[in-house]
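## tool: complex_structure
## caller: assistant
## args:
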Amino acid sequence: MATQKKPLHHLTIHEAQKLIRDRELSPVELTRAILQRIDAVDGKLHAYLDLMAEEALDEARVAEKEILQGKYKGPLHGIPVAVKDQLDVRGAPALIRGGKAEACADAAAVEKLRQAGAVLLGKLAMSSLPIEIPQPCNPWNTGRITGGSSTGGGAAVAAGLCMGALGEDTAGSIRNPASLCGIVGLKATYGRVSRAGLAPLSWSLDHCGPMTWVVEDTAHMLQAVAGYDPRDPTSIDIPVPDYTAGLKTDIKGMAIGVPRDFIEECRVRTDGEVLTLVDKAIRDLESLGARVQEVKLPTFKVATIATAVIYYNEHFAARRKEAKDTIKNAATSARARVYLGLLTSAADYIQAQRVRSRVRRECAEVFAQVDLLALPCQLRTAPTFEETGPLDTIYKHVAPEYQAPFDLAGLPALSVPCGFSRDQLPVALQVVGKPFDESTVLRAAYAYQQHAKWYEQRPPI
Amino acid sequence: MTETEEMMEKLTEQTLKALLAQHGLEPKEGDLERFGDAIETYLASLRAMHAVDLADEEIAPTFHPESSKK
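## result:
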């Protein structure tokens, strides 16, 4: 029987795994507690599309038995998690694929979660579906949006409806809900986490990654899902380091670049409160021993529109079969994506790819001088549903903003909470690393998190 | 709206209808009017993207991020 003071649904993965490993907490007890929490609040939040309660309890019983037999698999063993609808789950329909048939196999990342012993609670809501669904609400204020497209992941992790989620990021879709919901979200390097079994939004931009309450939990989840997979033609065969090993190493001497020219491009659309809190977080990194310097990324001013061009074109090609249903039944922004994908010419697509080459070159030059980039992760805090226009996602994708450029570049990018607005809404710092250097990103984010301790505040729901 | 802008909008609308038809699709009723501003904003951003001087930069048809060494 668990003896800790926190409610079980507010334990982090890192806390729960120690209790499970030491047999002070049963995976069945933990899964039941999370299911009760879902029962109590998901009617208000709409995070889950497909809750698989019975299967989850069965998996928790198996995990419990294995642990009692001394077959402990590691930090995710017996931990209840959930995944974005976009990732195939064996036996469950994927609404993104039209929802007409159950997937016959798990996506590679889901398969890896199961191999690590995680308990799968179900599939989470997302935007960009070919049908309209209730929009998930932000646990910090249910009158506000979560941000998308991993909408359910943002709501579920923040409210304690799962201990971690797998999201997908094409133009900011992990970091956007992570920043608006006050959680940690990591888009790993393109090629680091297999896309096999992931319904494509855009083949060359889609990135899987974890969404969790704290940085150490992101490290645990990334450890489970990272690695080469021959089923994904873009998967890269390089060793996966131990992501928790260096987490607690200090950041003294770490070189952090701040792209002031790009922040200036976005300034007119960025809330003053966001800029103030992010600047404070960067000063905090400096106080922890990092060496902060200004860097320039001149082509980033067109990186967001280049991302949109590639996204909409590849999206139309990838989801052409569902286009008729999308035009008939989907939300406004999903329909707009179809039209814009069609309107974009081959010359536009090629120019966007040339921008991508230049952006990558500029990033390589900057990362010859610094270890990380630090910048805002969002233009503003979560707007209300009334303030949110049906085409806001489209407008977000055409003017400079902070998330999409790193999908274009394929670099690891993490959102970590860095404070609250006057309205008590979360604001996030974005930390970006060299290709395949998620370890340094996690190390800096962990140092900042432990200094600032924003994770101690939970949403009021 | 100037005469040229009106003409461009009409042209875009006709182009989009033709492209949809080519794929056996048709727009949802009212969508083309509803999305007029978004489409114009998108096309303006495309023009900005083409205006950037990329010199002899080539395309990146395959994407393979490599570690950069400090």
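## assistant note: The interface with chain A takes residues 12, 15-16, 19-20, 23-28, 31, 34-35, 38-39, 41-43, 45-46, 48-50, 52, 54, 57-61, 63-70 of chain B (CB under 8 Å). Residues 3-22 of chain B form the longest helix (20 residues). Handing back to user.
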